[in-house]
Amino acid sequence: MIGLARSEVGSHPSSGEPIMAGVGRFGPYVQHGKTYANLERGDEVLTIGLNRAVTLIAEKLAKGSRRRTEAGRTLGEHPVKGGPVVARKGRYGPYVSHAGVNATLPTDKTPETTTLEEAVALLDARTAKAEAPRAGRTSARKRAAGKAAKPARKPPAEAKSKDKRKATVKAGR
């Protein structure tokens, strides 16, 4: 494995914390606190200046993290169960959420145009679908009980008659 090199570029002008430059698993980077910014093609890790490093870190902070999720739009309290019903934009499309249950919004709806009544209906349908037993699925215990209850399979009648014929043919010789 390649040794990972790190060197200090300088101190950040606003916070005074050190800015480090290094080569990592995904290529050259600069680091300030817990913020990592990849160097671009023209930047050299050994000769990067403090101004360029501060610019890269500021761009990374302005861009934001992909993992950060929006709080969403609160539609109101659930009329039966209580607690907030929230409409959000997710990785796989818009959805509504309440108490750990997520329901996908139809294609003609957005989180901004969804009403509380529509969201509650979608969440109730999703809860009913999740609680319904799945057809064709049995538990391991039921399968084991079914196997034990079946009687042993008897050999077909033809096999017995062939064996008898072979025995009579051999005895007749």
How does this model look, in words?
By secondary structure, the protein is an alpha+beta fold. The protein has a 4-stranded antiparallel sheet, with helices on one face. Strands 5-6-7-8 form a 4-stranded antiparallel sheet, with helices on one face. Helices cover 32% and strands 26% of the residues. The model has no long low-confidence stretch (mean pLDDT 83). Among the domains are: 6-63, no CATH class; 73-131, no CATH class.
Would you spell out the secondary-structure blueprint of this structure?
Elements: E1 6-11, E2 18-24, E3 27-32, E4 35-38, H1 50-63, E5 73-77, E6 84-90, E7 93-98, E8 101-104, H2 116-131, H3 140-149, H4 157-172
Antiparallel strand pairs: 1-2, 2-3, 3-4, 5-6, 6-7, 7-8
In short:
The chain is α+β, with helices and mostly antiparallel strands and 173 residues long. The chain has helices spanning 50-63, 116-131, 140-149, 157-172, and strands at 6-11, 18-24, 27-32, 35-38, 73-77, 84-90, 93-98, 101-104.
List keywords for this structure.
32% helix; 26% strand; single chain; flat; 4-stranded antiparallel β-sheet; 173 residues; alpha+beta
